[in-house]
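Students often ask why we bother encoding 3D structure as a string. The short answer is that it lets us treat folding as translation between two languages. Here is a chain of 959 residues written in the first language.
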Amino acid sequence: MASNSKNSITRKFSALTISIVIIFAAAFAVFLMIQNNASSSFSAKNKALNVRENMAIELDYGFNLAISEFRAYFAFGNYGEEASYKNNALKQQDQINLKLKEFEKLATEKEDLEFYEAARSFYDYYFNETAPKAISLYESGDTSAVASLAAGGGTESVREFQSSMKNYRLNLDRKLEENEKSYTDGMRARQTAFSILLVILLGGMSALIRSLTRKISRPLVELTDAASSIASGKEVLFENRTNRNDELGILHQAFERMSYSIHEKEQDLSAQNEELIAQQDELQAQQAELEEVLEQMKDRENQLKLRNELINGISNTLDKRDLLKSIISSLAPIVGADKALIVLTSHHKEHASIGVSDEEANQFLRNLQSGFIQSLEESRQPLSIKREMLESEKGFHHQAATCYDLFLPVFSSQEQLDAILLFTRYSGDFTAEETKNYMALAKNISISLEKIKLYEQTEEERQLNRDIMNTVHEGIQLVDTRGTIRLMNETMHEIIRGWENQPAENSSFTEWMAMFEPHVEKEADFREFFQQAVFTEANVLNQEPFLYQLHGKSGVKVIKVYMEPLYRMDHRVGTVIVHRDITREYEVDKMKSEFVSTVSHELRTPLASVLGFTELMLHKELKPERQKKYLTTIFQEAKRLTSLINDFLDVQRMEVGKQSYEKKYDDLYPLLQQIVELQQIQSPKHTFTIERLTEQTLVLGDKDKLSQVFGNLISNAVKYSPNGGAVEILLFEEEKHLNVSVRDKGLGIPQEAMEKLFNKFYRVDNTDRRRIGGTGLGLAIVKEIVKAHEGTVKVSSELGQGSVFSVKLPLVIQAGSDHEEITAKRTGTHVMIIEDDMNLAHLLKAELEESHFRVVISTNGKEALKQMAEVQPEAVVLDIMLDDPAYTGWDLLKEMKSREKLKQIPIFISSALEEKEKGFELGANDYLIKPYQPSLLSKLILQTLWQRDLNGQILVPAE
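And here it is in the second language, the structure alphabet:
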């Protein structure tokens, strides 16, 4: 019986079923345990790598900030007086030291320890050795030693450390990627193994059940037939033809004895059948659970796939718009959002969205600075909001419905809010676990945004460098070691403007050389220089400048070229070639050389005459009339020398702005008559005519300088009419200006020389004119004097027909020339005399009162200022040395010009000090040096006030 019990079908079937269930449960448990261990290992390793990477980023930022502060201190520290940059750098040094100590605790692997040693070594070198030494040198004023210290290895050490930092961070990124790939591959392998095991178990179970069913069904059929026979009342001879020891064997052995208990046995079989059905239902339930787990695994796999797509998308672009689109298109499926939006918090508010209309996006941007943004910045946590759906979100539904908004902040490494992510989901709320995962993804997004920022900063710096190069007035070419042009600034393009084929960036050496050579002289020398500049090693390179002439539509240019090899990390990467247009300098040097030759001739000629006649008079007895003739010649030659020297001095004073003018009202017509009379005596073969077409010939100017202008023009008309002829002077009025033209019938001027005619030292390159002589300064002086008188000078000429020089000066319209009429109009005008010498003050008062002025005298500058408020003078006569040495006439002059009510009053300085230039710079109308005739003062005041009235200036007393 015990043997039959052990071999019972029920026991075998139950044991088999329980064994399959136990094996399946054990396999599933093992799978879960392996999966959990792999996930924990992945998270722990990922977290450790992220911690080290963040620490490396903070160290990188700290070192760069400290170095920038030190550089700012050396650039703007004013040799130690401005210490804010240095203090900031020293504070950053302490923070870096703390970070290094924290990193030391985290360093477990070889790469971490090597990086820590490099960082600590660089920290000691930079902060403990180099920085204190550089600060000491800089604060002592030795900037050259600071530069030498940087060039001697400081800058190179910084670059090496930055390279080490970069390699370490790249190594961490690589480990993160390897860790994630290893986790993904392991997950896929485990899923595959579990699926295979599940199929094997299900197949084995089906085969065993089928085999067991066959073993049971065959004898049962036989028993059924026998039972049917028994039930039908037939007599059945039942023989036991089986050796089985199970229930069926017993049934065969005792079938004849079991007829009386058929009903009882039938009930037992029914119970067993129900048990099998229950077991089958249990197996089906377990199968459903396994299918659900498998579906979850597929969902996780899909999530990982989407995350990988997100990481790849944000890692493979440097375009901000593409990055934002990639982020939102990858995150929306991960989050399961129906609508998604990302907005940068910068002033440009760049954004990208999915499922969001333009109107909704603009509304969000307009309310970007509302309260919930501040809440995100303060809490630094995501914000989830439940709200009713908008009409546009309901679609064809009419009943009220809710949706959920999730606001995710994205913070930079400096803990600043860089971006905001907004997700809207209709299907359900966001769980805490989901929100936590999304915040982890936000960190990856932050890193990508910072990478974009760095790229944009690099692009801005690159554009800034290009803009700086474009401001340089020299043409710059940057070529690589193969001679290919990598960069050309705008000045270089300007130099070659107008060529049919122009070199450009990425032109090879052969191409741009072929474009240059048709436009240069001495092509062989040109090519040889540039071949050496580009391809010769720096240690044997001849860096002497090279000159070449460039032919173009604008004429011939003289270009000076010099070059400098360009190195990066002790490796030559190219050559900087500078093309400097020295055409102007070349022409000036040429003119100066010609000028020296001309001046030598011009000076030696009169000196030879002076020396020759002087020697005759010293060594020979001469008659009185011959002595007089010789002395006259010596006098004339000395005057000629004086005129030459005065021209040189005038040009020098005009260049430095030191030329002074004593402007007064003078009639040009008598002045021109005097000049013409003198020229008639010196040039008898020329005829001179003056034609006056206006009676208004009064101008405000320096009589001596105007005499010099018209003397030069008329003298040139005579010189450049070597065969004699007519010289015509014409005066006429033109638009409130007096126009004086000087016409001759001489050689004329070539058209190409017209624009250079008024340049210093310039003389027309012509043999006929060379014989005439001259320094080339006369017309330059004429132009400067006329310009100082607010006038213009022009020339028109036809070669071989003569020239016309026209001078246009502001005209003073004369309402009447009668002195009594002028003084009558000035009756009652107040004039204040500020003079410490009472005798001189009363003398000037008497003179001015004769011209019908009302005169007030003061000896103190401060008291005079108070009196001006009461008297309201229309003119002031001011002495410089007053009775109060602490408040001189200069102080009073400055005070008057700074006050709105007094700055328009004309001031006439009356002083024994010869400081005219200072007086005119401070705003004086005229400067009289003692002693002078008192009538001159009254005349100057009358002329000034009269001209002011003509110009419409009216002084209204202040109330």
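Translate back mentally: Confidence is low (pLDDT under 50) at residues 815-826, 951-959. Keep this in mind for the problem set.
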